[in-house]
Amino acid sequence: MPEEPAGLGERGRRMWRESLAIWSLTPAHLVLLEEACRIADRLELLDSMVRVSSGDVNADVAQFADISGLLAESRQQSAALKALLAEIRQGQYGAAPASVDPAGGAGVSDLTARIARKAQG
Fold it and tell me: For a disulfide at 93, which of 55, 79, 105, 108, Cβ 3.0-4.6 Å?
């Protein structure tokens, strides 16, 4: 198992361990996983900041703008995490066709195989 990257928080370390337990990753995908783990930690921090800030919300527009910025950053980080995880999963389908669901995977190699089977039959 690859060594856990330095500086990960609790959430990132858990994501690293659990991801490596179920995925076989290339070096490039390990880099993507490391970044995904850092984003997971960042989302945890942003969530705690939103929770603290939202407890102090009142009619002051300046305070709302601060919370709005935190929420916007949280949405952007969530979208980045989703994209990284999709890329890692896609690599799993393309790298290990034998482990793909027989109903059809999502990778390019799976699509090519399905087209070839359809053309033959």
Answer: 105
